[in-house]
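We both want to read discrete structure tokens more fluently, so let's practise on a single case. Once you have written the record down, we can walk along the chain together.
***
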Amino acid sequence: MANLHQQQSFAVFGLGKFGMALTMALLQADQDVLVVDSNEEVVNDVAHLVTHAVIADATDEEELRDLDIGSFDHVFVTMGENVEGSIITTMLAKKIGAPDVTTRANNHNHRLVLEKIGADHVIEPEQDMARQLIFHQLHPNVVNYFNLSKNVSLVEVSVENPSFFNKSLGDLDFRKNYDVNIIGITHNGKLNQVPLATDIINPHDRITLIGSNEAVQKINEILQEDK
């Protein structure tokens, strides 16, 4: 699995509000970014910021091949309002060999088509934001929450249950006992991104875990119990 803290290559197709916000976030993370849009003005606006900025038709297979899209670690197709364009661009990117394509859907039917043609990830920003907002309202102790798929979530949650305090990950054995995997521990603001079985959970540490939605919800409730 690639280390997300290292620089990777990203291609962003579509520089609307969401595409621009995504591009800015990638730049802040010091990533290698190619942006592509058919609008010369918006491309010129960001050309001085990104690694490469290209005015092109993302639905033209030859233009995508000229950009060597298959060599990029991640491709984002963000022109959600242009349903036909996003479908064609996604299909071509996968045909050319892009290993990881994330596409923005405009509605449920759009999502179904994108999933059918091979998009690796499909996002609906408004729907995703609404779900995250409600989740945070219902689980205020959860620091971060992401749906990785329909059935799998990743959350960062504070540990408030004293029965977990001062115990090692090996002793707690989250995988066996709770069917989740711990992929990070944050203590006093410092993230341990490669936790070992000997690492200790301290009071109010934040742990990042991944598992099925059901398992994540269950362990979240347990971690908040004040025994």
Residues 1-5 have pLDDT under 50 and may be disordered.
